Every structure is written in structure tokens, then in C-alpha cells.
Amino acid sequence: xxxxxxxxxxxxxxxxxxxxxxxxxxxxxxxxxxxxxxxxxxxxxxxxxxxxxxxxxxxxxxxxxxxxxxxxxxxxxxxxxxxxxxxxxxxxxxxxxxxxxxxxxxxxxxxxxxxxxxxxxxxxxxxxxxxxxxxxxxxxxxxxxxxxxxxxxxxxxxxxxxxxxxxxxxx
Length: 171
Known about the structure:
This protein is an alpha+beta fold. The protein has one domain (11-170): GTP Cyclohydrolase I, domain 2, CATH 3.30.1130. Helix content is 35%, strand content 28%. It has helices at 11-26, 31-35, 92-100, 109-124, 158-170, and strands at residues 47-49, 57-67, 74-84, 88-90, 128-138, 141-149. The strands form 2 sheets. A 4-stranded antiparallel beta sheet has the order 2-3-5-6, with helices on one face. It has a two-stranded antiparallel sheet with strand order 1-4. It is globular, with a radius of gyration of 20 Å.
């Protein structure tokens, strides 16, 4: 079923829609899609010695891009990195070059955010870090992904459970 098409659809565009929808129905996500981009070598994130104790650094990258490994379509978003340095701070130019490598990398949004976090932790060994990816809508849906170091327990924080329950009860 094609769904609703405008009345002034040309035969060529109708044929494209039929072919596109059939193709989308036939394709499934694979383990290869899920792992895409996770093992590709990326530039090292350089660091420099931290000179002060107990403070936070926030880095905003408002023009993050990557590629969906299944569709090949671009993903546009903003990456926010918040961390408390221990002995090392992230060097910004190296971080920018690292993030630019995602531009042509096929990787799911969730995997990109988690890989960025892991690479930051590996490079700087911060006391704690949070990486937040806010991605532009595609197909009418926007995505926000947040990854933390150290990793939290499996159970969501108490306030999150209450909000989720309240939202469910309103429906």
C-alpha cells in the first residue's frame, strides 16, 4: 500500500514511490548496520596537561554530520561535550578534526554519541563526562542521545521513571 499520494502525481514519480516502498519493506537492519562505523580508525584526540582542580568544561559542536549506514542519507545534529578534567584537557583543534571525520562515516546516531564518549574517556580520562547528541528531524522524528561516563546503572533515575509513568498514564 502506497498510502496517500497527491492527485497530480506523474507516472514516473508513482513508479518511483512504488519501487521505493517495496525496497524499504524488503530491507532489514542487519548486525553489519548496527556495527557500522564503530571500528573505523579515527584521528587521535590530543590532550594537554590540566592546570586546575575541580571545574567543568563544555564544548559545543553545532554542525555535526554523519551518514546513516542503512540509507546513506546524511544526519545533521549538534554535539555537546561536558566533562570535568582530571590530569588532561581535550585539545580543541584535535577534537574538531576528530569530529569532522564523522562527516562521511556511516554510523547510527546512538553509536556516534557513544563512540565519541568512549574516545574522549580514552584520551583524557576525565573524572566524569557527558556527551549529548541532538539530531535534526528526519521522517518527522528528532533524536537526542546522551551517554555518560561513568556509565549509570541500568535503572533510570527516579525522576525519569516518574515522568515516564505520568506520560503513559495521560494517554
